[in-house]
Amino acid sequence: MKMLELKRFSDWRPRLFAFTAGLKTLSFAWGHDDCAVALAAGAIEAMTGTDPAEPYRGRYDDEDSARSLLAEMGHSGLDDLARSMLPETHISMARVGDIAFLKEGSEVGALGIVIGARILVLRPAGTGTVPLLTAQTAFKVG
Q1: Which stretches make up the DUF6950 domain (predicted)?
Q2: Looking at residue 75, what DSSP letter applies?
């Protein structure tokens, strides 16, 4: 995967807010409604118009097939995948709309959206938040 050249829309904040509001009733499903495809890639698309998940959307349906697809693409986890597309930054430098990586949940890790001092994450049903400093790293969006 090549590094994405992203530019946020001038109205990215209301776009991000509208996008995240629509996630409150989402039920987690690998490959469709998960932290990579629905949450992180969805937020990036809402803010920039670019869908970074297009090459792998719907190509896995559980944690094992997600891990296999990442390996097939040459990545060890979601952090490695994000690093191949977005510039990495220390979590303390992340701004609203950036993507955070957390080493929790599944073996491949989890992605969330920085929303200030907290990170919006997917739960089995809907969304929740965790403190920003629980993330291992962050990735700049635009």
Answers
A1: 7-141
A2: -
Which H, E and C letters describe the chain, residue by residue? CCCCCCCCCCCHHHHHHHHHHCCCCCECECCCECHHHHHHHHHHHHHHCCCCCCCCCCCCCCHHHHHHHHHHCCCCCHHHHHHHHCCEECHHHCCCCCEEEECCCCCCCEEEEECCCEEEEECCECEEEEEHHHCCEEECCC
Of 98, 115, 135, 92, residue with least CA distance to 20:
115
Instruction: Encode pLDDT of 51-109 as tens digits.
Output: 999 988 999 999 999 999 999 999 999 999 999 999 999 999 999 999 999 997 678 89
d(Cα 5, Cα 92) in Å, to the nearest integer? Answer: 22
Domain-wise residue ranges, the chain: 12-139
